[in-house]
Design a protein that fits this description.
9 strands, 0% helix, Immunoglobulin-like, mainly beta
């Protein structure tokens, strides 16, 4: 459901126009997103990438896995200032904690993932994770 709100403010000779658009409601993610990673070359957690399975909401032990339309996958990672450090349209390419071959500093980073399931349902996931050195 989309809701649009338009506000007109008239003050003297100035007319101000503002429009707000409610974000679409997206279903629960098909991915699990790690909260942290340690790109230090030790072979453990050296890359950050969404994991492709989630547990169902009914607390079942079985793992639920749904296919992703790979042509629609996109992930972006940015720093706290909003600077995009990584972008990929390949679900198999993880982030290694670098930007233009320079190592990124320890701290929190933000991700935005967009994709569709094989049955055409659109997903948009956003969140934060920590890079630990």
């Amino acid at each position: 459901m989309k809701i649009r709100i338009i506000i007109f403010v008239i003050s003297g000779l100035m007319i101000q126009f503002s429009a707000c658009k409610k974000e679409e409601n997206y279903p629960q993610s098909l991915f699990f997103y790690p909260e942290a990673f340690t790109p230090n070359g030790d072979g453990l957690n050296d890359y950050w990438i969404p994991l492709g399975c989630i547990l169902p909401s009914n607390d079942s032990i079985a793992v639920w896995q749904v296919g992703i339309n790979l042509d629609t996958y996109e992930i972006k990672i940015s720093n706290k200032n909003g600077r995009q450090l990584f972008k990929s349209e390949d679900i198999n390419i993880p982030w290694d904690g670098t930007f233009k071959k320079d190592t990124c500093t320890e701290g929190f980073y933000y991700y935005l993932t967009r994709y569709e399931s094989l049955d055409g349902i659109k997903y948009r996931d956003a969140g934060v994770f920590e890079l630990i050195r």
